[in-house]
Write a structure and sequence with these properties.
With 397 residues, this protein is α/β, with parallel strands linked by helices. The strands form six sheets. Strands 6-5-7-1-8-18 form a six-stranded mixed beta sheet, with helices on both faces.
Length: 397
Amino acid sequence: MAQTTAWDPHPEPLAVHSAPVPEYGSGSLADLLPTLAAGMAVPGMTATIPELTAADRTCVFLIDGLGWEQLKAHPEDAPFMTSLLGSSRGGTGRPITAGYPATTATSLASVGTGLPPGAHGLPGYTVRNPETGELMNQLRWNPWTSPRVWQPYPTVFQLAQQAGVHAAQVSSPTFQNTPLTKVALSGGTFLGRLTGEDRMDLAAEQLAADDRSLVYTYYAELDGAGHRYGVDSDTWRGQLMYVDRLVQRLAEQLPPRSALYVTADHGMIDVAFDEEHRIDFDEDWELRAGVALLGGEGRARHVYAVPGAANDVLTCWREVLGEQFWVASRDEAIEAGWFGPRIDERVYDRIGDVIAAARDDVLIIASEREPKESVMVGNHGSMTPAEQLVPLLEVRS
């Protein structure tokens, strides 16, 4: 008899509690900055990733879309980062988890606020705004709503600056005034630079600017290449080669008493272009029945039912998708801890009546509602290792 794994054979339907919940409170993106800030004696911060050692000067370099599994699969394209794999998570050689859903807006908010999605309130790519009943795209902040109302907590950068730590963000000038930056990463000095090389050089300068420094820098283009061409395409591999050189460039310039942490907001998988792997909500009358709004993204859906239809929608989605997706009601997902250990009252109704998280290499696309997203090669959002696990590579000086 062939040996089976935890992922095979499929339970029918997949049990809600069988989903591998992120390591909130001990090893998730939301735990990173509080741990680093606690090492700088910032009041109110707690070191919740026990493997990390304090440093006076700390830089976080977040590479959008660089999952742990994708990095390990391409050692020839990323020789420097590959050499650092054993340093991940304080020398344990282990990854951390992104948080659910594993998507950029949610993850950046988790990084910057030090809070899980159920608290910071950005629990998906698109979610319903309970005040208006409309879907809100939290990456593009469309339609606009007050950032401070949507996410009222201070960022770790703000708290660090108040405690006398030199805080700085070095990124593309495009992101300086976006609402997402304001709610997730504000605090300290924003320094916009167009090229990756300039960002690395300036990040090193900012680290050396004070005895205690907290610096954040970011690179987005690897994620874009994965979405457009896939995570094993020549374009994606070329981007990986480039970002590997950027990491080395920054590592070689670290001032004394510094720690560099290289991480990511999510991983990514490629999904085949056929009806078996791409289930089109806009052409499936069963999935549409009783649904008022379809939120989230292809591998991490928020489903908002018309009044009174939530139970019927849950039953239908489980029957149709339950062998390939973890399908949960809002309360089941909350109780299972998908969005973290607590859900703020203002966040509760932003979460779908039904949540569908992909276990297999499949998508729920919406060819009419989401034409651009529906044709992406690389996708992410769910709780599989390829999407959830991200590196936490470390270089110290």
